[in-house]
Request: fold
Amino acid sequence: HVQLVESGGGSVQAGGSLRLSCAASGYTDRTYCMGWFRHAPGKEREGVAAFWPAGEKTNYAGSVKGRFTISQDSDGNTVYLQMDSLKPEDSGMYYCAADTTDRAVLPSFGCGRTEYEYNTWGQGTQVTVS
Reply:
């Protein structure tokens, strides 16, 4: 089944940019919900962005709206998170996630940003903003 591997994390100054990548191996389905989550010390893991390839719908946390962009390669094997105007509070471990279950997606809404909606996770990539 699908396995996810994140890359692209690192250390940047406030105001800088990073582009995270999530490479999927194994069978992929462009109807899967894809999401990016982050986990900072002392805080619970939060959903940053979600993407529904079938409907090309996106869903962003208010704290990153206008600064982060989730996207997918045309072949469907790589999901990206472009992060601009980074702030120190954006620091944390970033995880790529996928929902490979048969859960139905509401076309008018797309994919959510809650942890329980996703069953496949990568190992994470560290982002540090100073």
